[in-house]
Amino acid sequence: MKYPALKTISLILALLTLSVALPSCGGGETGGSDITAAPQSDGETAAAETEFVYDYGSLDMEGEEFKILNTEQPYMFYSSLDFEELTGDALDDEIFLRNRAIESSYNLEIAIDGGYSLEDASTALQKTVLAGDDVYKAAYLRDTWIANLLTGGCLADQQDYDGFRFDMPWWDGDAIEMNRFGGKQSIFFSFNDVSLVDFEGTVTVFFNEDMMEDLGIEFPYQTVRDGKWTLDAYAALAKAGANLNGADSFAWAQDSDAVYGCISYEHFTDSFIIGGDVDFFTRDADNNPRLAARGDKFDAVVEKVLRLCVNDGEWLFLNKSEPNHYEIAFKNSRTLMTVAQLKAANKYRDMETSYGILPIPKYDEAQEDYRCLRSYTYVLCIPATNTDMDKTAVVMDALAYRSYADVMPVFYEGRVSQKTLRNQDSIDMLAIMRDSRHYDIGQAYGWGNTIKDIFRKCAKSKKTEYASDVESKRAAIEASIEEIIEMIG
Fold it and tell me: Which long-range contacts (CB under 8 A, 24 or more apart) does 299-303 make?
């Protein structure tokens, strides 16, 4: 499988042993991490000793404030970028120490402006740019709220600055490359783990181990490892999990005894279609985005995904307030599986039954890799009014590196693996998920939901015919794509 270097479990576990020294003020000494493999012995096949030390350079910002706009949200994602002091929580404290290390290295003061949520954060950044004010050096914004910034010339092109080392593993190079359009190949937003929201927004399959054990079904962890976790394998589990238990029907009722194969939400169809190795959007020979959503393979994947939603009891859409919510239905053992974002595990800390996670299934065994949709993503944006772009690139690259080297191991081993996941199998599954995250091009430009809503509505109404609906939207979406290409260009 072709996985990015950052995403491999071996690197994540190796990073737990790193010792990263605080760099001195002004970058006079380069702090860094020694990554050491087993030494060679008598010409044997043991790996040669290797060492990597991050070069912080010699930037001195003379005590300047480095203000970052952060987006708040109400959905229990971990979105904090800084803390006023050590809190005693391992993850909080690592983020605090990361920021103090960067402040010490570059003689600056990091300030996080987190008073805005979702659309309001993008609007706040837009207002400062339109007013010509150099207020924010950087911003972490929800990708679905940046279209106006992209088309309004509010964002700087990050590819123009060498301080961003996008080819290094502390940046998600695949996602960055996927969103470079046109002849200039501009980078208006980028991906790293300074904000942890992106990782927690990855869609996964949760399953109830106790329920599966009662059904006499072997846990599908090895099926995943063997590359045999497919739509057909998922369908068999969904069918086995559906049970009326004396109820009159599978119509949802809080006090019913009916149990379901899978209860989920809107992103079920999005993630399963993407997981089947087809795309809603792609790029043409000129690297410009184009609406895909057609072709024999696409039709085969979509038909199979929609058929997963047809049979009563095997799939139910449930996304209302608690307790009539897919995450809570799973917590209450009303469903064998749920397809949800990884952050749903934050609600299961006190769950009495054991559960596990799995990547989104493949279309079939011939498919080489799993693909897990990133459904809730914060991207790094640099406002066009930033007058210190070269310095900003250096600082943000260092923040991305420290997140990679110090924060992610703590997040992975502490917050995720030990506190919310129950066993080593799920930790292995999480590593596969991390390796296979996929970003949909249409998400940041306003086209994505237009096409995805067609398949979401089909699933809810148990329809499998969608082609005419797709074609009815095609002209409008393609016109919007052309308009945005022209405006960005």
Answer: 299/467, 300/363, 301/273, 301/276, 301/277, 301/363, 302/273, 302/278, 302/455, 302/466, 303/464
Q: What is the pLDDT of residue 158?
A: 96
The token duo for 315 is: 């799939």
Residues in CB range of 112: below 8 A, 6 or more apart: 67, 68, 70, 81, 82
Our measurement of the distance from residue 206's CA atom to the centroid of its chain's CA atoms, rounded to an integer in Å, reads: 16
Asked whether the CA dihedral 249, 314, 428, 434 is positive or negative, the reply is: negative
Residue whose token pair is 């996941």: 421
The domain limits of the chain are: 61-200+376-435, 203-373+447-488
Confidence (pLDDT) at 418: 58
328-380 tens-digit pLDDT? 999 999 999 999 999 998 888 888 899 999 999 999 999 999 999 999 999 99
pLDDT of residue 9: 39
Model pLDDT, residue 485: 83
Residue burial 225-255, b: 16+ Cβ < 10 Å; e: rest: eeeebbbebbbebbebbbbeeeeeebebeee
Q: What pLDDT score was predicted for residue 405?
A: 94
User: Which residue carries 């599978």 as its tokens?
Assistant: 250
The CATH code for residues 203-373+447-488 is 3.40.190.10
How many Cβ atoms from other residues are within 10 Å of residue 475's Cβ? Answer: 10
Q: Where are the alpha helices (DSSP H) in 119-266?
A: 119-130, 147-151, 173-178, 197-200, 209-214, 221-225, 231-241
- Residue 285's CB: how many other CB atoms inside 10 A? 6
**CA dihedral (261, 265, 270, 275) positive or negative:** negative
Residues 6 or more apart in contact with residue 251 via CB below 8 angstroms: none
244-262: pLDDT as tens digits: 999 999 999 999 999 999 9
- Strands 289-291 and 203-208 come out as unpaired
CB atoms within 10 A of CB 413: 17
Full DSSP string of 453-465: HHHHHHHHHT---
Round to whole Å and give the CA distance between 188 and 176.
9
Cβ proximity of 355 and 206 under 8 Å: yes
The fourth-level CATH superfamily of domain 61-200+376-435 is Periplasmic binding protein-like II (3.40.190.10)
Residues of the chain with pLDDT under 50: 1-49
